[in-house]
Design brief:
By secondary structure, the chain is of the alpha+beta class. Helix content is about 35%, strand content about 15%.
Amino acid sequence: MTGEDTSSHGVSLQHLITLRNAGFKVIPLDENDRPCEPWTPIYDDPNYWTVEKLNEEVSKFRNVATCVGMTRKDDQGSDLYLKCLDIDSDNVYKILFNLENGKSLEQYSFVAMAIQGTFVTKTRKPNGFHVYWLSHEQNKAISTVDCKPGFEFEIKTDKRGHCTLPPSIHIEDNNFHYKNFGQDTIIISDKMYSEIMILLSDCLKTQSADNQKYHSYPGNKYRSPIVLSNEEIQLICDSISPYYKKGYRNPIIYGLCGLFHKYDVPHESAINVIQTLAKVDEDRKSRLVTLDETYKKDSKAVTGIKYFLDALEHAIGVAG
């Protein structure tokens, strides 16, 4: 990324503009890596920084960080949310470095693939990385307290912390500069969160109250969650989409959400199905609201397979 060099004057204006345009919500840090001012307004307002405002306040940026959350819009005018995977432990790095392709059985590295596709910062820890991406939906943050000892990682999605960006200098080592090992742009992916959650599911305290939404379902405590693969998600959507027509979408979505919740399909897998099925639906956001409201209920109280099949049968009969 151009303009990264720091000097006695701090981070350059051009570099700050480049970071802003990529989707970062920049926070000015002093020489000791501390925010120069409260950064809640930066988190709350995706349009906080203009080029003019950065020009006026560039002197504050001796170092630079970013908060996450809602940021710029995509080319179609839809909201985007900035997220960051913070690899905090050697065990998590090893898991992500030694993955196996289920079809070819070839090994691959999540980190190496991320470096080829998005903005990836190397931190001071030997196996420490920050992997950034954008998506169209907000997700639950994961913190180290959600993780088993020795398997810590974070997914930053809210206002509970910020991440230091290049070319900042580390507070404990003046010779260490944060660097971008990846691309100058941030990838847009609505699947990366759920993919990371699947890859690192064994690192989480599965009975933690903080992870109840993803790992525990009322009335089904003896069943394991049914995590859907990308292929299974696509198969479900391909099977339903011919009948997903106006006038029949509400009962299909309502039935599908109830079915997923009742049979222990994790919230993130369900989100991916609904997002894929409703990708050309003008009421896409309301479909996701229906899903969220369904998952807040006791799974015994929601609709099941009979309601969904009745809704689908009615749509098929009309389509036929």
